[in-house]
Amino acid sequence: MEYQVVISILKKNANPKNVEGMARFGINPEKTFGISIPFLRKLAKDIKKTSPDIHILAGQLYGSGYHEAKILAGMIDDPKLVTEKQMDAWIVGFDSWDVCDQVCMNLFDKTPFAYKKAIEWTKREPEFERRAGFALMACLVWHDKRANDSQFLPFFPLIKKYATDERNFVKKAVNWALRQIGKMRPGLKKEALKTAEEILKIDSKSAQWIAKDALRELNQC
Q1: Which end is more exposed in the chain, N or C (fewer Cβ atoms within 10 Å of the end residue's Cβ)?
Q2: How many CA atoms lie within 13 A of 163 on its CB side?
Q3: Contact indicator for 7, 31 with CB cutoff of 8 Å
Q4: Measured between alpha carbons, how far apart are the two ends of the chain, in Å?
Q5: What pLDDT, on a 0 to 100 scale, did the predictor assign at position 190?
Q6: Per residue in 139-155, pLDDT tens?
Q7: Which SS3 state, helix, strand or coil, does residue 44 take?
């Protein structure tokens, strides 16, 4: 399946009403078709069966700038062929939380650079680039079952440091990362609770929300 064929399929299945609904949930409506994730997953499977070079196609799709094409690119690309340069370039194109999260969970967390980038990206200033760092942390905890607990320890100081970022899509990702570590890694639950308690003492609305929400959930599991 070639690039133009894929784009034509996306355009054919565009749903303007869905775009309006997506916008209400904080998803950028620009260059968005309003196509569901299940539809994209099915299309991704078809593409992998019929495309001779999915890595090149993924780059073309992401470069198109279309919302769903970016998500689709993350679904089809080969993590073994992804470079650090590509990852750094793609996050600059993150303009919605769902593009950020989908690419991180479908592709970036499977690359050998995932842990390194999770740390690096939290230090970036743009909202969705910083979110990508914490989203990647959450995805790694979720998917990397073979990882040692020690691999997640460097995440805690960053979670605490950036808990004061008041931007909605950053604070929610910081909270997500903290909760995921505490829930998915029993050996790190105590450290997650300790970090949440430390964040609770910070004079920041964002930090207070992150800590209270994390403590509520972690104390129930």
Answers
A1: C
A2: 31
A3: no
A4: 45
A5: 96
A6: 999 999 999 999 999 99
A7: helix
pLDDT of residue 100: 97
pLDDT digits (tens, 9 = 90+) for 156-182: 999 999 999 999 999 999 999 999 999
Give helix 189-200 / helix 205-218 axis angle, nearest 10°: 150
Domain extents in the chain: 1-78, 94-221
E strands present in 65-158: none
Q: Which residues contact 110 (CB under 8 A, 6 or more apart)?
A: 79, 143
Any idea what DSSP says for residue 107? Answer: T
Homologous superfamily of the 94-221 domain (CATH): ARM repeat domains (1.25.40.290)
Q: What's the DSSP call for residue 142?
A: H
Q: Looking at residue 81, what DSSP letter applies?
A: T
Tokens of 100: 């950020």
Burial of 53 (0-12, 13-18, 19+ CB in 10 A): exposed
Report which DSSP code applies to 109: G
Judge contact between 97 and 169, C-beta under 8 A.
yes
Instruction: Answer whether 149's CB lies under 8 Å from 185's CB.
Output: yes
Is residue 202 very low, low, confident or very high in pLDDT (cuts 50, 70, 90)? very high
